Amino acid sequence: MGRAPCCEKVGMKKGRWTAEEDQILTDYIQSNGEGSWRSLPKNAGLKRCGKSCRLRWINYLRSDLKRGNITPQEDDLIVKLHSTFGSRWSIIASNLPGRTDNEIKNYWNSHLSRKLHGNFRKPTVTDVVENAPLPPKRKPGRTSRSAMKPKFIPTSKNPKSLIKANKNEIVLPTTIIEINGDKEDALMDLSSSSVVSGAKEPGLGPCGYGDDGHCNPSINGDLCINDDIFDACFLLNEPDAVHVSSFESNNVENSEPYGSSSASAGHENIESMADDFIDWDLVWREGETLWDEKEDLDSVLSWLFQGDEKESESRQKDSNDFGEPLDFEQENKMAAWLLS
DNA sequence: AAGTATCTCAACCGCTGTGCG
DNA sequence: TCGCACAGCGGTTGAGATACT
């Protein structure tokens, strides 16, 4: 039996929305709130699919939307974000207040992609991206962070064995990446970064699993790596330089990368991993209450693009798991490496 | 002025993960 | 454990607007 359509197609209106329909939808949502999109058209008296109502509201009718042209600052930010996150329009949009993913996607397709393909521009990160092997494409569908509440986590003894996570626990698998064969530098660069480790909260940052399978920074110095930053690693023009050593920190040399179908002792080439496709959204699992996606992403962005001096100062006082001061010169090198 | 090409962007489509019975 | 409904995502379409010949 095939799946039922999202709404009854017969009798449903399609195409442009009229001002009257907009008013009906706006009035209904202001009275009843968002949600229950499937039943909304019937309750509101609209001959529209629930999906269509949702899209119309989110992309056009919401009061917090910013109208007008994309500013040069926004333009610049979109380019930078796209170079890091690719076509993850919802992530990009979340950092442009008042802009929707659809709007940004359209803007990119109609303005920026063409602009960046012209002959007059300076080389950008996009050049690097285009010359590099394609990163594994994000699978379509609903995979937003907020929707990806952690449900199960691997145990330390067996990563394939899953136990249920508590709501307020930080749950991060461990991945080590090796850059140009220099694991130590890579670890230092990445683990010292709040971008990668999300070290704004106690318990985040260089970490490992305790016997209970939960993140425990005291166990070892391995790092937690943001999947999006890892995605960015795929965008390098020297993909062979990046290797994944391990998923499970307790047995670095002999365990296999998370999501890889083939067991691999030691290093796994990034390109073969791309063939297997690893959904890094799933690799990155966060606790519900301690982790603030927006806040963390803001941290990522300030670090990558603006250089948040205040945060940098506060982190200057930080130290790694071994009590050594963090090396921010190397962190800056990492930023330059990602953006160059 | 008319015909054609190109561009823009609102809306649609198909797919997938989550939640729940 | 399974199957369904729902929500949300990225990709694509196509009507209307604008530019060009």
From TrEMBL:
The keyword DNA-binding applies. The keyword rRNA processing does not apply. PROSITE patterns: HTH_MYB (PS51294), MYB_LIKE (PS50090). Residues 9-61, 62-112 form the Myb-like domain. Keywords: DNA-binding, Nucleus. It is found in: Nucleus. It comes from the Eukaryota. Residues 9-61, 62-116 form the HTH myb-type domain. SUPFAM superfamilies: Homeodomain-like (SSF46689). Residues 130-159 are annotated as: Disordered. Coiled coil: none annotated. InterPro entries: Homeodomain-like_sf, Myb_dom, Myb_TF_plants, SANT/Myb. This is Transcription factor MYB12-like.
